[in-house]
Amino acid sequence: MKYDVTVIGSGPGGYVAAIRCAQLGLTTAIIEKYNTLGGTCLNVGCIPSKALLDSSEHYHNAKEKFTEHGIDLTNLKVNMPQMIQRKNAVVEQTTKGIDFLMKKNKITVFHGHGSFIDANTINVAKADGSNETIETNKVIIATGSKPIAPAAFNYDKNRVITSTEALNIEDVPKSMVIIGGGVIGLELGSVYARLGSEIHVVEYMDRILPTMDKDCSKELTRAMKKLGVKFHVKHMVTTVKANKKSVTVEVQKRDSEDTFKLNTDYCLVAIGRRAYTDKLGLDKVGIPTDEKGRVEVDAHLQTNVPGIYAIGDVIKGAMLAHKAEEEGVFVAETIAGQKPHIDYNLIPGVVYTWPEVAAVGKTEEQLKEAGVAYKSGKFPFKALGRARASMDTQGMVKVLADANTDEILGVHMVGPRTADMIAEAVALMEFRASAEDASRMSHAHPTYTEAFKEAALAATEDRALHI
Question: I need a labelling partner for 314 at 20 to 30 A (CA). Which of 324, 352, 447, 465 fits?
Answer without folding.
Answer: 352
